[in-house]
Amino acid sequence: MLMSFRWYGSKLDTIPLSYIRQIPGMKNVVSAIYHIPVGEVWPYEDILAIKNKIEAAGLMFKTVESVNVHEDIKLGLPARDRYIENYCITLHNLAKAGIDVVCYNFMPVFDWMRTDLAKVLPDGSTALSYNEKILTGLKPDVLAAEMEKGANGFELPGWEKERLSEVKKLFELYKNVNEEKLLANLKYFLEGIIPTAETCGIKMAIHPDDPPWPVFGLPRIVISRQHLERILSLVDSPANGLALCSGSLGANRENDIVEMFHHFSKIKRLHFAHVRNIKVYGPGVFDETAHKADDSSLDMYGIMKALYDTGFTGPLRPDHGRMIWGEDGRPGYGLYDRALGALYLNGLWDAIERCGNT
Ligand SMILES: [Mn+2]
């Protein structure tokens, strides 16, 4: 297991790499190139520049999250071939710089979604939260505007301005795309990029849809064990793998998270782990919480044990955190609570390892 921390680069992130380096057991940084528009090639020099910064701080840069997939690929439009070609060149450039895991998602129009970016929890901390009831009757562009307002002046990952200005047009285009069509478009994309990933030694990791159910009537194809199995079978290659995210998949209590981590890690198709806790109040209602089990719904110990037992060596990050101790930052991506999350997971791992070796 390679303990990792997401960082948005020196221009966009408020957290210095030197602070990340001080989190006990922190080894690897997960980052991306943010100034290149979705669909265009990431130049090797730009990747190298960020890698050099990270390594100068005493950390590794082995994992990219995300190389986003252009909507034309998800929609199956003719321009997709050019974007797939660009994607392959980006993979080559990343491999040349030593990256071996690339995360992406295949969610139409919106990336992850919440209805409150700063819900006050009983202890006074604030957290990302979701309540289906709030969404009912809300127009997609109104929600997009709300997300932007609540983002503290930061651009949220997956909620880039150029994408959101197109919301209405995109909904029109997605009218003819159902689950099967979206899956066929994913297959086409994977057939285009997996041979390149294989050649250059990159493991692709698809992130589950968050939340794990359809929103605004848009299709979702990465929300259950059956969906994940189906995606792996679209192109049966070790390079076609998963980024399991406990907080995303776990919002649907029918998903057996521990079993999923165990199974997909055992068959060596789990390439990236996002381990965070949530408190689920009922279908379609949840808050993001601290990793500790006291007031949350998911079995963090069970997940870490599943990873340990199956010999998981890939990157793992604590994913999101709450805002605590007066910290002001990008919702979900402050320093303090994510550092606590990493430490909690490292503690579990150490204990499991000690028990496993006696
Ligand atoms: Mn995640």
TrEMBL record:
One of its GO terms (molecular function) is mannonate dehydratase activity. The keyword Manganese applies. SUPFAM superfamilies: Xylose isomerase-like. Pathway: Carbohydrate metabolism; pentose and glucuronate interconversion. It catalyses: D-mannonate = 2-dehydro-3-deoxy-D-gluconate + H2O. Keywords: Iron, Lyase, Manganese. Pfam families: UxuA. Its cofactor is Fe(2+); Mn(2+). It comes from the Bacteria. It is an enzyme of class 4 (lyase). PANTHER family: MANNONATE DEHYDRATASE (PTHR30387). Catalyzes the dehydration of D-mannonate. This is Mannonate dehydratase. It comes from Sporomusa termitida. The lineage of its organism: Bacteria, Bacillati, Bacillota, Negativicutes, Selenomonadales. The gene is uxuA.
